[in-house]
Amino acid sequence: MAEPKKEKAKKQVPLRLSATLYNDIAQWAEDEFRSVNGQIEYLLTECVKQRKKGKKETDSQP
After folding, report:
1. How far apart are CA 20 and CA 57, in angstroms?
2. How many domains does the chain have?
3. Which domain holds residue 40?
4. Does residue 7 form part of some domain?
5. Tens-place pLDDT, residues 11-37
């Protein structure tokens, strides 16, 4: 079996969430036809994109 490429490999991260937050994310994931893990990954990806976008806008301002 070939090893996955480094940029395609995913890291496993232990994550502790309150029951309330987990239930809210689980419901949101269900609404969008994702797994809880997929929803968390999606949300984190979107937040990182927005952060990078915000940095580019502030860097270009005088």
Report:
1. 35
2. 1
3. 19-60
4. no
5. 999 999 999 999 999 999 999 999 999
